[in-house]
Amino acid sequence: MDEEISIINSKTKEEKIKNFFVNNKNKIISIIVILVLLLFGFFFYKEYKEDYRESLANKFNIAKSQYSSGDKSKVIQSMEELIDSKDSTYSPLALYFLIDNKIVISKNKINEHFDQVLNEVKLDKEIKNLIIYKKALFNSEDINENDLLKILNPLIKSDSVWKSHSLYLLAEYYFHNNQKQKAKEFYEKIINIKDSNKNINSEVKKRLQSEYSE
């Protein structure tokens, strides 16, 4: 009897499973098709991204070669197109190239590119902090105190690895503008940072020893 009941239950389960597939055939097929399309879409998108980044790398290398060979006519255009691409690697690299080689004379234009990269490109936290610092450094020679503080404020209030660099830039700014007491305050802040940059820390100690020791 128990064996017969077991056989009946087994057949009942098989019948239920069979009916489920029959009744939901269209839904099951649709789900399978969607999963296959998603899988193909994922690999297609991945391949597209790889090809796209490779094209950005080629454009960057070609522009560098053109600059090195003296053919600078298309370099600015190529680098600005790379900035416009909003790529986390090549947008910052193109901006650095324009700055380091002083290709774009207009500071306003460079600052527009800085803002574009900072506001529109998805960046790692410390890469973004580095670009903020570079923007402050780029403008430090002809910017007023409030504007320099405004640029560097996110770094000064953070635990970024670029915090000591930012404080040192401000200290040097005040020192060279003959505001030595303010400069001293920022030099001392650097000394008090637990993990401040060793080279900066060393320079600060020399400055304090030579300029502020009694």
Oligomer: single chain
Percentage of residues assigned to helices = over 70%
| Broad structural category | mainly alpha
**Quick one: biggest sheet?**
none
Distance between the termini: 107 Å
Descriptive overview:
By secondary structure, the chain is an all-alpha fold. 79% of the residues lie in helices and 0% in strands. The chain contains ten helices and no strands. The longest helix is centred in the first third of the chain and has 44 residues. The radius of gyration is 30 Å and the shape is elongated.
Summarize the structure.
With 214 residues, the protein is mainly α.
Features:
214 residues; mainly alpha; 10 helices; 79% helix; 0% strand; elongated
Give the topology, please.
Blueprint: H1 2-23, H2 25-68, H3 75-84, H4 90-100, H5 107-120, H6 125-139, H7 145-156, H8 163-176, H9 180-192, H10 198-211
Helix pairs in contact: 2-3, 3-4, 4-5, 5-6, 6-7, 7-8, 8-9, 9-10
